[in-house]
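Hey, I was hoping to borrow your eyes for a little while. No rush at all, and the record is pasted right below.
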Amino acid sequence: MRKWLVLSLLEVLFVAALFVPVSPWIHIYVPAAADVDRWSVSSGHRIESWWSSPDHLIEDGRLYLRVQSTRASTLMPIVDAPRWDDRSVAEYRADHPELTGLWPERPIRWLRR
């Protein structure tokens, strides 16, 4: 019984080690007012951080929304991508009244429809 328990614990530790982060998060932000139909990683604003980042960023008086976060691990990358659509943006706007003057006047073009 004891040998089985030790082997099981070693297996769990081995599998857990495969998902250990080996690099910082890379967060991609796209301007809310971007005049594009689709966003791309190369056109976004890139920020590296060992911690999670907020869903929005204000830089040079412009509002940016986080569209993707990736992190390399031992086995495979970890990807987090908020699902921005008309409904989620409306909810986010309601939850963050401090951003009122920063939203574009027209609908965000690159949202998922």
The beta strands are 25-31, 45-49, 56-59, 62-71, 78-80. The longest helix spans residues 2-17. The two ends are 56 Å apart (CA to CA).
